[in-house]
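Weekly structure sync, notes
Attendees: PL, DS, HV (note-taker this week)

Item 1: Matrix metalloproteinase-2-like
DS walked through the input record. Source organism listed as Crassostrea virginica. Sequence as pasted into the shared doc:
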Amino acid sequence: METEREMYTQIAGVCHCCHYTGAAGGRVRTGAHRNDYTPRRLAMKTLFIIAIYIELFVTNCVIGMPASGGSQFEGDAVKYLAEFGYISESQVEKGAQSLMAVDLSEAIKKLQRMGGIPPTGVLDMRTQELMHKPRCGVKDPVEGTRKKRYVLAPSKWDHKDLTYRIENYTPDLPWQEVRRVLADAFKVWSDVTDLTFTEVMNTEADIMIKFASRYHKDGYPFDGKGLILAHAFFPGKDKGGDTHFDEDEKWTINSKEEGVDLFMVAAHEFGHALGLSHSNEPKALMYPWYQGYIPDFRLPYDDTLGIQVIYGKGDATLPPRDRTTSRPDTGGEQNTLAPPRKAPIDPCKGNFNAIAVIRSEVFVFIEKYFWRSPDPKTILSSEPTVIHNFWYNLPEDVETIDAAFEHPTNRRIYFFYGNRYWIYDGNNLSNGHPRNGKPITDFGIPKDIQKIDAVFVWGFNQRIYLVSNDMYWKFKVADEYIEPDYPRDMGIWKNVPIPIDTAFNFHGDTYFFKGENMYKFYDMKMKVALNWPKPVTSFLGCGDSIRLRNLGSSPQRIADRSSNPNSASAHPALATSLLLLSLLCIVKQMLNTC
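Item 1 (cont.): predicted structure, written out as tokens:
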């Protein structure tokens, strides 16, 4: 404020200098000097004063507004935001009045983004409902930038043969059923990794499990029946991995009646015990809020990716075991599975059935297997996965994937085989989609077409194209129907082999595949680029080949600045402040040169 007072003093001296000695000091000006006091200089000085008043208004009236001025920031809301990591508990300790409204509004926006509701920054009805939903007691990951929806904790287990011990049981359920359900919850994670979980009886274990009420000596007391259902500690020594369930809840198994499903909560908490934080994907198991009993539960795609980033994919991705199957009551070790036989195919020889970019990863389908990796050159660093073991409910007669693509808006995955197609949410069949698939005639494809060879996004216009033999169609995403005036002849795509095996878009460039070769397409001339085709070994990183991203000349497309939450355009107050500061600097420079 002292600097501001000095500025006002100087301004006062300047503005009154034509008539008398101002507050800044100075002699009475003569008439000759008043002739130099032009309208331009007066306008500049007036503008300077207005800019300072605006700056002070923004700083003192908006940014400096205390939180206690509005009831929406008081009481339980502030406590909730602190408890789950959206504001520091030290601030709450000092009292809500010490918090600025802009800070609490930003905290509410973070909560709203995590909950998947519009980030208004206002404690509206939907936000209040979210705050009253039962949930996990682990704090939400609100700091940092996530590349994917799943979030990794700062720690992991340094060994994969983990032990667990059940210290006590809830009286709500038979103890044998509790043991079975907890074992099934662990199996959710062992099915997609090579982690093993063995129950022990009388010794310390990596993961200690117990049911407790209120204060239970871990520093995180439960709140009674209602909000917090359970919590777990991330991997580490002492309490690391320990998982606690609130005994004040009514625990149930496979029931839609009143109560909390033990399997769903346990599977979620064990995700924390293995090193996963919360996800803002509403369908993910690691979503913070309780989703209720889900029959025939399968681990969603988001959670599968997260746990495999930490521990790898393992030697096999196995068909999930029915969770209703009875389990022996003995506490012996679980059976370990022999590693699978290697796939009797060589991806470096090409002959791909399909290639697609799904969730920012490249998927290569050959016969009944698929490989995946964000970088095609490293795609062969792990064993393949059987298609049916990852995408559940595909009929047994689906021998491979002919073509695939990810919907650009709703992110659903479309698979084609023969004259049928399937729609998946992650790795689960979309609700209402028949297991036997739907006919491709739903899209307007003629009845005599028995197979879609490829589906790709053309980098030139970002439109989706379907190819079958020597014909292709442009697909209208909004209507899920082909455009008029199609099909057209594939001969338009000069030098592309007919029929193609598959095609896909990578970093804005379109590639066609046939046998052992790949063809980069030159959009502007509508033909295969110079010096192509090249062997698929350059795509998969077989031998000493170069990376695919170096094969193309087009760089990564630059994201819209408005999508960057740290950009000035995403923060109107910041943009306004920067504009005002720039204005002040310009005016000052002009005044100095006048």
